[in-house]
Amino acid sequence: MPYKVKLKLKLTRRRSAGFTLIELLVAITILAIVAVLGWRGLDSIVRARQALNAEMAQTRGIQLAFAQMENDCAHLMDAVMLPGRSVLNAAGNKLVLIRSVFEDGQPVRYQVVAYSVVEGALGRRELPPRREITALERDWEGAVGDTDGARVITLQTGVNSIAMRTWKQGETGWRVGGNDVQNPGGQTPQNPAFPPTPAGPKTEKLSGLEVSLQVKGRDAPMIKVFLLGAS
After folding, report:
1. Which of 85, 89, 126, 170 fits a disulfide with 204 by CB distance 3.0 to 4.6 angstroms?
2. What is the pTM of this model?
3. Which domain holds residue 178?
């Protein structure tokens, strides 16, 4: 066999025996690129899932806070029972109200409840149920002035601010804040805890409350409207 043919056969066998260094480097580079692209895609999916879970948890927390507010507003004390006084005050970053408490085997009692946003957290605190008007007035003043000492239960964190508007019967629009002062000097229903006073002029009471929470990470506030004294 000619020498040139033998040499050509040897070169062909060597080339078919394995990959060259350049071929290996190219393959490794391609695999690295694919791995980086796959890692980035997986990382973006994980981040999106975490953000979605956090948003869902935040929405669920706000919904639970609104549900508690709705329950308190539905049991709002009838303002005619406290002539010349307020049973709901929505001002600044605080909502204070007096709600009725119904328990089996117990007479109807009344309880001061306060909501406020402090250091990015929406909190609720409630004072003991009362039957005496003097104790109820003392609790009200303490809640308004933040001197009641009641334990604060955090309903939701990441709340930047709270804004409230009220709807009063006989009016045609929302008003910022507001309170529910009924019967200044007017007659109250017969109730042993709240003695009647001489008859006098009667004002229209509040019938609706709008609460707007500006939550961290959301462009638009979360808004809920409640009926007052619905139950």
Report:
1. 170
2. 0.70
3. 63-227
